[in-house]
Design brief:
Helix content: 25-40%
CATH architecture of the largest domain: 3-Layer(aba) Sandwich
Largest sheet: 8 strands, mixed
Strand content: 5-15%
Strand order of the largest sheet: 7-6-8-3-9-10-4-11
CATH topology of the largest domain: Alkaline Phosphatase, subunit A
CATH superfamily of the largest domain: Alkaline Phosphatase, subunit A
């Protein structure tokens, strides 16, 4: 029936789109929904060849903004003020209001205040010139959701359990900073710009307003549901004004620098040769308009503004196009600025961390941090002090980080690491800051001498490797050891198609050099090129690239998923089914592929098989799995159960229009035309760009005898989803049979032209004859 369900994005942000198509409802037109390589190194779990120290409690910190970056990103030393000693901080509680601004995918060296002579970031530069700039700030993850969870809980990923964008939900047991602000009498609001921060993932706790009003369910291809900074500023500013006179905690999230880089004018013209910097400039412009409301120049506002990013962007460094694969400084290093009227300008080169941001905001607001006893960070209002029992502050010079997406989405080796100074430095070691990356082919970099991370010292510095490997927390081990999976991790793994209870494959327990992401950069490039070809509509090229991915790594389930997607988009439904069933038999099918397989089985009239496949997700807490399960139940005629499943999905994500859309479909199967109309309108109220909801609305109206309204709904469906031939057939056939020739003829001719294309002719053979007969009768 041509349904499309929003899924995590391929590559940097997860999976890809699902496609389906089932047909034929009673008294209605159409729903329209419808091999190991050779190489040096050893197979490992976690750190190659080194036992972990399970008893060590690690305090974490981060490193400096490097002096190097990709071409065009080299800071000019003259533009960067010399870092100063720790400045005098205001008294605790000095801030009446606190504003946290996160700019997604903003590199540490992509701003003017970092010395980038090409960047245009005047508003961020003003904050930096008047506030505190932390020049050595590191994230702990290189993906949006876990990085923001680190920021807003002051816990590390292995503590709070959110290890990637897809599949993970913040456990109820983990308190959030927003809850602490709310308990202290603050009004609290978050305005987020993209789906990875959707309320369903748990970060909404403690926020009286959690505005995630981007258009879910209609993003094409691999695009993420998002909205522009103009909408974020409008919503945040309106809330700020409504709560004038109250103490306020506001979090505003901007998504502009995230790929694809498509800056608006005038930034597109100004940065025609560097669209990423154009997006950064656009984000800065939005930040400036928000600052004009929350912290206008010259006004005594009593506000603390904190600006950072969740992670950076590789832009081709180390062979990585975007982020998520590696954890080099291009993606792990982030900007951090604190601004308040009470602060004297300062630049600090002491390593700091994302987990330090929340304790800093709480102290500024005068909130006792004991409400969050498991915070791993420290306040940045004073220099670090040596913890009890430690010889000196060097115990702070260790930062844990991880990048698990390639493991969870592709089965490649998991990446974890630590940044630290030598425990017992020699004269030659003085001042060295080292990065250790625990992979089958491990890496060690001297970040002072080699900020580009081009010279791997792993073989030459075995003693230092052992020191840093011992700092890697045993609790961070991934995949979890047998018996060590928490309930939250179990649910996340099942939602991704792992663990036997969901019918998927287990994550490998050991990894060899052939699984190291460094050896798989070329395959990553193939997957990225596939995504670009698919998104651009070059489906034959996308199919070629997908087949290449399967050939290069036949044990990677993602290859079968993307091949099936390319085939489905070309109308090769039977071949796509063969590919997906093959992946399922090989135990390589992810939860995303299970959903697509179920939808496709339903499309070809095998709704019973689709239900049996999805039964394993009956108790899932994943709204996407429940959406598909409810839909195939409806296709199988099990409408009562379908409604219950879809209501559960809405209970987990009440703003999800796809679940409402599927409830409309369920009502159509039950011939409850008024309820179908209500549910379709509910879905369209959440997102007016849902082509299928318009189609279902048209069908409900048609079956209530409101033909003119039905034709208008179908016309709207064709406008927002021009590739759906089932909807086009509904419009064309109904218009022809009711004498609306001005609508019927162009729609019939278009259907005949598009349905006759290679790959579609067989599927639509009977419809083509019907359309020809209708044309003859006009």
């Amino acid at each position: 029936m041509g349904r499309r369900v929003l899924l995590p994005r391929l590559g940097a942000d997860g999976g890809g789109p699902e496609r389906s198509g089932c047909r034929g409802l009673p008294q209605a037109a159409r729903t329209g929904a419808g091999r190991r390589e050779s190489g040096r190194g050893e197979a490992v779990r976690g750190v190659p060849g080194i036992a972990l120290n399970a008893g060590r409690a690690v305090l974490l910190a981060a490193l400096a903004i490097s002096a190097c970056g990709p071409s065009g990103y080299e800071p000019e030393p003259a533009a960067v003020e010399e870092a100063a000693a720790w400045p005098q901080a205001p008294d605790p509680g000095f801030a009446r209001d606190v504003v946290l601004i996160t700019i997604d995918t903003l590199r540490a060296d992509a701003t003017g205040f970092a010395g980038n002579a090409v960047a245009q970031t005047p508003h961020l530069d003003r904050l930096a010139a008047e506030g505190w700039v932390f020049e050595r700030t590191y994230a702990h993850n290189v993906m949006t959701l876990p990085s923001h969870v680190n920021l807003l809980t002051s816990q590390l990923p292995y503590q709070h359990g959110v290890r990637d964008n897809a599949g993970f939900v913040l456990p109820e047991r983990v308190p959030t900073g927003a809850e602490a602000f709310l308990a202290a009498g603050f009004r609290t609001a978050a305005v987020v710009a993209a789906f990875p921060l959707d309320a369903r993932y748990g970060l909404d706790r403690g926020f009286e307003l959690y505005d995630d009003s981007y258009p879910e369910g209609s993003a094409p291809g691999f695009a993420i549901a998002e909205r522009g900074g103009t909408e974020v500023v409008a919503a945040a500013s309106a809330w700020w004004t409504r709560n004038e006179g109250e103490r306020r905690f506001l979090w505003a999230h901007f998504y502009e620098p995230h790929a694809p880089y498509e800056p608006p004018e005038p930034f597109a013209s100004r940065f025609a040769g560097d669209p990423y910097l154009g997006e950064v400039a656009a984000a800065d412009d939005h930040v400036g308009r928000l600052l004009a409301r929350v912290a206008p120049a010259g006004a005594a506002m009593g506000v603390l503004v904190v600006v950072t990013s969740d992670h950076g962007e590789s832009l081709g460094e180390h062979g990585e196009s975007t982020h998520g694969l590696f954890a080099y400084d291009a993606t792990l290093k982030v900007p951090l600025v604190l601004w308040a009227e009470e602060l004297a300008p300062a630049r600090l080169d002491q390593p700091v961390r994302h987990i330090d941001v929340l304790p800093t905001m709480l102290e500024a607001a005068g909130i006792d941090g004991s409400a969050l006893p498991d915070m791993a960070g420290r306040s940045l209002w004073r220099a670090p002090a040596a913890p009890a029992g430690a010889p000196d502050a060097r115990d702070l010079d260790a930062t844990y980080f991880e990048a698990l997406q390639a493991n969870l989405q592709r089965g490649w080796a998991p990446l974890r690491g630590v940044i630290a100074s030598p425990r017992e430095p020699t004269d030659a070691d003085g001042g060295r800051l080292l990065k250790y990356v625990a992979l089958p082919e491990a890496e060690l970099y001297d970040l002072e001498a080699d900020p580009a991370e081009a010279r791997n010292l792993h073989r030459a510095e075995s003693d230092l490797v052992a020191q840093l490997a011992a700092l890697l927390p045993a609790e961070s081990e991934w995949p979890p050891a047998a018996g060590g999976v928490t309930e939250e991790e179990r649910r996340a793994l099942e939602s991704l198609g792992y663990l036997s209870s969901s019918g998927g494959a287990a994550l490998p327990e050991t990894y060899g050099p052939e699984d190291d992401p460094k050896r798989l950069v070329e395959l990553d490039r193939v997957i990225q090129e596939y995504s670009e070809a698919f998104q651009a509509g070059y489906l034959e090229e996308a199919e070629r690239l997908a087949r290449r991915a399967v050939e290069q790594r036949p044990q990677m389930g993602l290859g079968y998923t993307i091949l099936a997607q390319a085939l489905l988009e070309q109308g090769e439904v039977e071949e796509a089914l063969r590919v997906m069933i093959d992946a399922e038999r090989r135990r390589l099918a992810s939860a995303s592929l299970h959903r697509q397989l179920a939808l496709t089985l339903s499309e070809v009239g095998r709704a019973g098989d689709a239900v049996r496949l999805m039964e394993r997700y009956a108790d899932s807490n994943d709204p996407e799995a429940l959406n598909v399960f409810g839909l195939v139940l409806a296709e199988a005629g099990m409408t009562d159960r379908a409604r219950g499943v879809l209501r559960r999905s809405i209970g987990m994500d009440e703003r999800n229009p796809v679940a409402r859309q599927n409830l409309a479909l369920t009502a159509l199967h039950g011939r409850d035309w008024p309820v179908a109309e209500i549910e379709a309108r509910e879905a369209l109220a959440l997102n007016p760009e849902l082509a299928l909801a318009w189609n279902y609305l048209g069908m409900s109206l048609f079956n209530q005898g409101r033909v003119d309204e039905a034709l208008e709904a179908w016309q709207r469906s064709v406008e927002v989803g021009p590739g759906d031939l089932d909807v086009l057939f509904n419009l064309a056939a109904t218009a022809a049979r009711t004498g609306r020739r001005e609508i019927a003829r162009p729609a019939l001719e278009r259907f005949l032209r598009e349905a006759s294309a290679p790959g579609r002719r067989g599927r639509y053979a009977a419809d083509i004859e019907t359309v020809r007969a209708l044309l003859r009768g006009l």
